[in-house]
């Protein structure tokens, strides 16, 4: 396996771990997880959840605490927000859900070096 392939596998594992931690965090807050890693042609939504009567489309970003490339929250740029909005429209259409109360959250998961513990920052209604 090449170094690039190993790095990609490491990023995928880190991302999957962060998404699991984010889902557990939302469950502790009383959310109900509806979907994880929902995909269509326009993209992927990491978590779809219900917060009471509100449908939540959550983007999860995981980083090590090195901070070399900014925070996980900062990494959700204009292009990514546009893609998430478009993918959410497809989700609503395919599930024949009325356009009611929904929002877009961003969850940043910070991994602590040498530990499986994570610090979670949650920005509800981020965009």
Automatic annotation (TrEMBL):
It holds the Pfam family UPF0102. GO terms for molecular function: nucleic acid binding. CDD domains: PoNe_Nuclease (cd20736). InterPro entries: Restrct_endonuc-II-like, tRNA_endonuc-like_dom_sf, UPF0102_YraN-like. It comes from the Bacteria. Belongs to the UPF0102 family. This is UPF0102 protein DQG23_00015. It comes from Paenibacillus contaminans.
């Amino acid at each position: 396996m090449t170094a690039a392939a190993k790095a990609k596998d490491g990023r995928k594992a880190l991302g999957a771990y962060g998404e699991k931690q984010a889902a557990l965090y939302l469950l502790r807050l009383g959310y109900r997880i509806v979907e994880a890693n929902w995909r269509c042609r326009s993209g992927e939504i990491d978590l779809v959840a219900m917060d009471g009567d509100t449908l939540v489309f959550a983007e999860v970003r995981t980083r090590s605490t090195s901070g070399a490339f900014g925070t996980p929250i900062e990494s959700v740029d204009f292009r990514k927000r546009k893609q998430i909005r478009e993918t959410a429209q497809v989700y609503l259409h395919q599930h024949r859900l009325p356009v009611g109360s929904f929002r877009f959250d961003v969850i940043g998961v910070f991994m602590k070096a040498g530990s499986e513990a994570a610090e979670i920052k949650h920005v509800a209604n981020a965009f």
